[in-house]
Amino acid sequence: MPSGEILSQSEIDALLSALSTGEVSAEEIKKEEAQQKVKIYDFKRALRFSKEQIRSLTRIHENFARLLTTYFSGKLRTYVQISVASADQIPYEEFIRSIPKMTILYLYEVEPLTGRMIIEINPNIGYAMLDRVLGGRGASVNKIDHLTDIESKIMMNLFENAFQHLKEAWGAVTEVEPSMISFEVNPHFLQMVSPNETVVVISLNITIGETSGMINICIPHMLLEPIMPKLAVSYWMQTEIKEREPEKVVALEDNVKHTGLPIVAELGHSVITVEEFLNLSVGDCIELDNRMDQPMILKIAESPKFIVQPGKLNNKMAVQILDRIKEGDSDE
After folding, report:
1. 277-318 pLDDT, tens per residue?
2. Which of 32, 197, 289, 312 has the most C-beta neighbours closer than 10 Å?
């Protein structure tokens, strides 16, 4: 009987009847349960990440998928949808066997973390993007074995800019600087880690118009090892409720203080007819409703703030503040 299985009343009655008649002994049931507690452990498939760490990585790359959706939608000028399909930990050798023999592979460093990650892009998606960039409708033709230098350069620029969003997606956990190291088409040339090394593979589903495919992000355990504690749920909760650091508040205040505001000192107003406006010529004078000896209104961002008088400072026109206009005053 499998452990944890819920029995119906008829099955319970049958089991009690078998125990009472001696067909089944209690010792046999205990022995069977003891045998089921033994699990086979594959040392070649070592599980080094907990479930909550995998969930944290999924959460990070869900944010990354949203950033990529926005980036590619604007870059390709077409419908693009990207979402996380799965996040699994597998041996590096298994990841290499799971991807096509000829595909689009980019090797990235994410300093200051030690190690490199692989980003594998399905050729169908890669060529659909290339076709859109070159002015096509997004058709996909797999020609990975004879990619031209110009096409390689265009695709490298496209994906290098796209995967700079890793910095923003990982910002909640650690500061990283992603940089593209190399481009390959044969995964067997990328012996990044030992075959049995555990890697996390985050698979992204991507749809461009009528073309769909996968983007796989392979991250070795050794790269994530320094930040493993930050992938715990408790760290995320502390980060969300943590107050802003004082230096960030100071930097924000400093930026606000240096924000430019338009300032206008109005000499006065005047109302003329359309006919008078059409007949204006050089040398004509327009009478304002404000006298020369009366103060002016100083507006900041179109809001009346001060009462001022005109003058000069260092041979430049200036105004001197006489009073502040309070909220609700109708001085204007």
Report:
1. 888 888 888 887 777 778 888 888 778 888 888 888 888 888
2. 197
**One-character DSSP codes across 191-211:** --S-TT-EEEEEEEEEEETTE
pTM of the model: 0.57
Report yes or no: 224 and 201 within 8 Å, Cβ to Cβ.
Answer: no
pLDDT in tens, 243-274: 455 667 777 888 888 888 888 887 777 888 88
Q: Is the dihedral of CA 20, 24, 26, 27 positive or negative?
A: positive
Q: Is the pLDDT of residue 331 over 50?
A: no
Total domains in the fold of the chain? 3
Phi, psi of 25 (to 5 degrees): -100, 155
Dig out the tokens for 136 from the structure: 């096509």
Supply the range of the domain harboring residue 23: 9-39
Determine what percent of the chain falls in helix, strand and coil, rounding each to the nearest 5.
Answer: 40, 25, 35
Token code pair at residue 186: 């044969």
Q: Is residue 251 part of a domain?
A: no
238 with 267, same domain?
Answer: no
Same domain for 317 and 197: no
pLDDT exceeds 60 at position 74? yes
Q: Pick the last residue of a domain from 182, 212, 242.
A: 242
Residues 88-112 pLDDT 10s = 888 888 888 888 888 888 888 888 8
Tell whether the torsion through CA atoms of 161, 106, 123 and 213 is positive or negative. Answer: negative
Angle made by CA atoms 103, 44, 112, in degrees to the nearest 5: 60
Q: Which of 194, 214, 197 is nearest to 205 (CA)?
A: 214
Residue 31: exposure state from Cβ atoms within 10 A (0-12, 13-18, ≥19): exposed
The C-alpha atoms of residue 212 and residue 224 are separated, in whole angstroms, by 30
Residues 213 and 229 placed together within one structural domain of the fold: yes
Query: Residues 69, 120: one domain?
Result: yes
Residue 235's pLDDT is 53
